[in-house]
Design goal:
Blueprint (H helix, E strand, L loop, with lengths): L1 H9 L1 H17 L3 H13 L4 H21 L3 H6 L8 H11 L4 H23 L4 H22 L12 H10 L10
Amino acid sequence: EGWIADVLVHGAGCSDLIFFAEAWRALAAADTPRLRHVAQLAAAFAVSAERRLETLGQGTAFLAAVGTVWPHPALLAAFQAGAEIAYPVAVGASTAAHGLPLAASAHAFLQAFAANLVSAGVRLVPLGQTDGQRVLAALEPVIAEMARRALVTPLDAMGASAFRADLASLRHETQYTRLFRS
């Protein structure tokens, strides 16, 4: 719980949520240059090569799925065909294009981020499903606060400092045997 809270507050959870919110605002304002800047910055913020591969792969796949099932002209116009887009930018832009409210969407995005980390913990450590749900419930105040903060944090004030999580990501990508890509 403490590890995940730190990732949410000081690491990728925080930065991804700010990228999400900035992408939402840029697409809502039809500001394509700003959206592309956010996309480039989000890709550059990936701590390790594997984290970069993960976020660009997930974001690109997410946009392809949304474009196939729920196509929207604003999304087609915003991103060049074949461009790799970081996951938080893809999701933020997609929610804006489809008229979903920023605050609720940001909260849901971070909730899913935390749930993915809890799910990994449930599979890797002796932590059952019920205890995993307890961890997620205990993180809800952190998620709500971070979602609120992300909406008022400008892009140029963003930063991350979850050094142990970042070092773990760097070490993980060079391990021979792994359960997860990142």
